[in-house]
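Feature request, filed as a ticket because there's no other form

It would be nice if the structure record came with a short human-readable summary line next to the tokens. Right now we just get the raw output. Example of a typical job, pasted below so the devs can see what we mean:
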Amino acid sequence: MSIWFSYDEVALDLERPLTPQACPICGSTFLESKINTGLCFVSKCGECFHEFTSQDEVFSKEVYDELYFEETHKNWFANPQTKLFKKICKLIERHKALTKFGDFDLLDVGCGKGALLKYISTYFPKSNLTGIDLGEPPLDLDPRIIIKKSSFDAFQETGSYDVVVSTAVIEHLSNPKDFLLRIKQFLNSDGLIIIVTVDSTTPLYIAAKIMRMIGAGLPFRRLYDPHHLNHFTKDSLPRLVKDQGFKICFSGGVNVPLKSLDIPSSTLIQEFFYKLGVRNLFFLGSLLGHPFLQILAFKKSE
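Raw output as currently delivered:
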């Protein structure tokens, strides 16, 4: 297929060279498409069809400061993903039964305000829980929960963990391969990794692309906001995981509460119809096996 570029939403800086970008999944520089959203370029690999944004093709970078947690994505952090948390605990419980380990050490990479850690602490009262994030840790933490303000690159730990969890983080990273390899360094030999990210083949994504083609580009720009550098499918995420030497134990998904989404709207009526549309697309995604979030559990290959 030929490469095509979309210039319909914003004028490009013609002085800026469009250099070939390597797909973070398969390494190919052959692109099926490259779309300018006005905030970034979104490229689609012509080999594995993974969609991604290179950091040097982001026009407006997002800063992960307190404003990110308290204002920009306040609904997400104020409304815990209870269904997702329960699924994660069930996966840990099953892994505990298979490996016959008792009390366990868990690391949550990109833990936000610690909502998942708090949920796990009630589900597994004897677990030892550690989280890291760029934001300030909350003050009302259970003594068994330790949250450190740190990037994952700078995180220093001498021990290892039975379980490493990361929800809604890997899509923000320019090099997901290095991220998984670093996680492997902190994982016990029989440990479990659980990664949660969006599914870019869910009906919500498909509807946003169709709406963009007919001139309604806002949903597309929201989903392809440049703070998401990778848009994983149910093919590209497992491929990435297997290529880094892991064995997949579970693949599934879950929708998120509508109230956790920051849906742009100027009136209550507009907000109502937006949420009604998203609700119906979530329902369709569940029927088709493509809910909004995908969950992948895996461990080191034997």
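Something like this underneath would help us a lot:
Residues 1-18 have pLDDT under 50 and may be disordered.
The chain is about 30% helix and 25% strand.
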